[in-house]
Amino acid sequence: MKRGKMTFMTVLITVVLMSAIPLAAMASEPVTIQGEVNDSYQIVDSSGQVYEIAETEKGNDLVENHIGEKAKVVGTLQQDQDVKIITITAFEILAE
Fold first, then answer.
1. Among 17, 31, 62, 65, which residue carries the largest CB count within 10 Å?
2. Residues 76, 31 contacting (CB under 8 angstroms)
3. What is the pTM for the complete model shown?
4. What are the residues facing 31 on neighbouring strands?
5. What domains appear along the chain, each with residue ranges and CATH number?
């Protein structure tokens, strides 16, 4: 009985750890997104995909100073259910 519980717990822990690996990889790879900055702390790309902008120094600078402008942003993505959140590491304002 104890051996069966131990095997079950080992398998359960392995599954949980393996499912967390793709999330860590997704958050660590830089991505580049182009879109329009809005006053809801979001950037919306040309296909209509909405990315929430994480509240960081770079993110705050982008939103506070460039609402309504098109920007190219570089950062890391995280996903919380259907919400994509970008932590901006660099951005460039694009000419219209």
1. 62
2. yes
3. 0.70
4. 75
5. 2-93 (2.40.50.500)
Specify whether the backbone of 41 is left (phi greater than 0), alpha (psi in -120 to 50) or beta: left
48-94 residue pLDDT tens: 999 999 999 999 999 999 999 999 999 999 988 889 999 999 999 99
Backbone phi, then psi, for 46, in 5-degree steps? -65, -20
Distances from the Cα of 44 to the Cα of 41, 47, 71, 81, 85, angstroms: 10, 8, 10, 18, 12
Single-letter residue type at 92: E
Nearest to 33 by CA among 22, 21, 42: 42
Among 61, 63, 58, residue whose Cα is nearest residue 76: 58
DSSP state of 55: S
